[in-house]
Design brief:
MULE transposase domain-containing protein; 6-stranded mixed beta sheet; 3 domains; 12 helices
Length: about 350
């Protein structure tokens, strides 16, 4: 007996207009989460984008019984249609623009006119994890889409490379941490290939580093070849190569901004921390209500309007906080409050 299908998309006009405003200029992130969202582990899929300050803003949300190419095509095709319909509405009547986006009205109207004139809304790129279902669904809806693999997950996979699925008969050796770092250093150089010529050059250099630096010596020949075969099967194929090297970047862009899917993953972390209070949600109906009534509205009410502080400011703040804590005199133990919670006060 086939299990019943469950699919629901959750939208609001703000989220659709945000995708229109930012998607073509700053790209989109696509990711799914299975953990702690509902009693059936039905995956929750976020489509997100970022603003000019590199802050995440939410697009639409999809909850389904599973994540397959077919279900994602249904979701993404609907998103595309909704954005294009909103663009047509804005061109016809700019007063439909959400009030919190009035500061961006001129840019949003220009984006709407471009979509109406071309008849097509296409994000600058899609950032995904190594998910074939996402890849095929995106290309089905946008045949010429630029798809990028999250560099964080690429590096993470390589650090754990001996656990990757490959040839079951290969004896892939484990690598100690220093060797893993050397492997990553060699791989980062390979990522900077930007055309076929530089790919051939960087690949030859990468293979030479594996043979002469990572595992030198006659006794390690089998281990070296196993490592090389891992990369040949998992990363050097025509299917994946252009998604993690600079070859696949949009014209005029580099990897400084287009590199990871962390903004989408951070969206899930924020959702779990703030909206689920770091607890496993059991009811899928409650989940839908939270997304529809609270998730979108949270970002709508506090739509980001300023840049994040530079990393140096964060580091200076952390250092100052550590110095206060480490002094032994900066934190005063105030005992417990009426709820039995420990309380501390930072000395003036």
């Amino acid at each position: 007996k086939e299990k019943p299908e469950f699919r629901i998309g959750i939208k609001c006009s703000y989220a659709i207009q945000v995708l229109l405003l930012y998607g073509a200029e700053y790209g989109a992130g696509l990711d799914s989460s299975y953990r702690h969202k509902n009693e059936n582990r039905a995956p929750v899929t976020f489509l997100t984008t970022t603003d000019e300050n590199e802050r995440m803003v939410p697009g639409l949300v999809f909850i389904s019984g599973d994540v397959t190419t077919e279900t994602l095509i249904l979701f993404l095709a609907t998103v595309k249609e909704l954005v294009e319909d909103v663009a047509l509405d804005i061109v016809g009547d700019p007063t439909v623009i959400d009030g919190v986006l009035q500061l961006h009205q001129e840019k949003l109207i220009a984006a709407a006119h471009e979509v109406v004139e071309t008849g097509d809304w296409v994000p600058l790129f899609f950032m995904i994890d190594k998910c074939r279902a996402e890849y095929h669904a995106i290309l089905h809806v946008w045949p010429e889409a630029c798809i990028r693999l999250c560099q964080f997950h690429v590096i993470q996979s390589i650090i754990r490379w001996e656990d990757e699925h490959g040839d079951p008969e290969s004896q892939r050796p484990s690598l100690k941490r220093p060797k893993q770092h050397m492997l990553l250093y060699a791989f980062r150089g390979l990522q900077r290939a930007y055309d076929e010529e530089t790919w051939d050059t960087e690949k030859a250099l990468f293979l030479e580093r594996i043979r002469t630096v990572i595992l030198p010596g006659h006794k390690n020949r089998q281990a070296r070849e196993a490592i090389i075969q891992y990369f040949e099967r998992n990363w050097f194929t025509a299917f994946w190569r252009d998604l993690w090297t600079d070859i696949g970047l949009p014209p005029g862009h580099n990897c400084d901004r287009i590199s990871t899917n962390n903004f989408t993953e951070r969206a899930f972390k924020t959702f779990d921390q703030i909206f689920l209070d770091n607890r496993a949600n059991k009811s899928i109906f409650r989940l839908i209500l939270i997304i529809a009534n609270e998730w979108f509205e949270y970002y709508r009410q506090w739509h980001p309007t300023h840049a994040k502080p530079p990393n140096k400011d964060y580091l200076d703040m952390w250092k100052k906080a550590y110095d206060v804590w480490d002094s032994g005199a900066g934190i005063v133990d105030m005992g417990t409050n009426e709820k039995g919670q420990c309380v501390w006060r930072v000395a003036a």
